[in-house]
Amino acid sequence: MSGADPAVVAEARAFLAEAAQAFRAEYGDRQDFDAARAWQRRLDGAGWVGLNWPKEYGGRALDLATQVAVETAIGETGAPQIAGFIGVNTVAAALMRWGTPEQKAYLPAIRSGELIFCQGFSEPGAGSDLASLRTRAQRVDDGFVLDGQKVWTSHGTHGDQCLVLARTTPIEAGGRSHRGLSMFLVPMNLPGVTVKPIRQLTGDDEFCEVFFDAVRLPPSALVGPLDDGWRAAMSTLAHERAAAMLLAMRTRADVRHTVGSAGPELPPGRRDEALQLYVESEVLGLLAERSIAEIGSGTVGPAQSVVKLAWSQVDQRYAEFLFDLHGAAATAGLRPAAANALLFSRSSTIAAGTTEVMRNILGEQVLGLPR
């Protein structure tokens, strides 16, 4: 990748060649939570978790281009995504920026996967629009009392703690405001916390609903300034700049591998479709590389929304192409990876910013259209 440090990428690939083989010998093709946690421990033991973390917290302080190149290499091993990706990529950013010394003490356990975090931001009726959230943390003499509901909480069933965004200053009924929000660390085993898994099309239950019923929190649970949680929350969302780029680069690599492997064996009627998909994925990768360069130079604008929008559409087309390529075998369940990719790709236009939200951002910030 243009701009990546070749020495660091070469070091990572040399480690991964041996680490992935050792992991496969023990876990095979498993992608479950226990395997993902074991893979995270293996990566962390060699210093390949928290790639963009400052060195003072055990990270490598890599620039974005090198981070994406290394994480792309990790993804190419076929090993599972690390179990604590939310803690590593999201929660840690908030703790490093806003956490107390006691809260920052969680960082080594987050990096190793010993401590698993989930994130409680989205609510029914307040997904992309967090200014409308209604979960309430009422101040009392000995801390706060938390009441409300979160939804689409990734890995809530495995989470030890949840980073929750709640309203500490009420607003008028039906109103919306980014003011009066605060962030909290909430242990998932506290009385009043209820987790209900949401079964997905794939049969997995990665997402959950989380209910908070009169959950009592000490003052030390507060992360960042009281009533200024929106600014603190933005620290946790900054990782999505890298996440969108990484998704784009992985999809380009997947398309290259699939189309390249099929090659002359592609049915004549599918070759135009394969070529079109290949071109689109290459354009997607070039957009991601340009965006990485812009971020590296300190320019943060709507380019990331372009990449996210383009990725979601190319990813869905790729999943459909892959499923159709396997034909009856995929339909009969003999190619479970292709079937799972097709089902999971339905979320690509929803996760990390819906297609509608991305188009609104581009319409307003790039095209100058009225709201």
UniProtKB/TrEMBL annotation:
Its cofactor is FAD. GO terms for molecular function: flavin adenine dinucleotide binding; oxidoreductase activity, acting on the CH-CH group of donors. It comes from the Bacteria. Residues 118-215 form the Acyl-CoA oxidase/dehydrogenase middle domain. Residues 227-366 form the Acyl-CoA dehydrogenase/oxidase C-terminal domain. InterPro entries: Acyl-CoA_Oxase/DH_mid-dom, Acyl-CoA_Oxase/DH_mid-dom_sf, AcylCo_DH-like_C, AcylCo_DH/oxidase_C, AcylCoA_DH/ox_N, AcylCoA_DH/ox_N_sf, AcylCoA_DH/oxidase_NM_dom_sf, Mycobact_Acyl-CoA_DH. Residues 8-114 form the Acyl-CoA dehydrogenase/oxidase N-terminal domain. Keywords: FAD, Flavoprotein, Oxidoreductase. It holds the Pfam family Acyl-CoA_dh_1. GO terms for cellular component: plasma membrane. Signal peptide: none annotated. Belongs to the acyl-CoA dehydrogenase family. This is Acyl-CoA dehydrogenase, N-terminal domain protein.
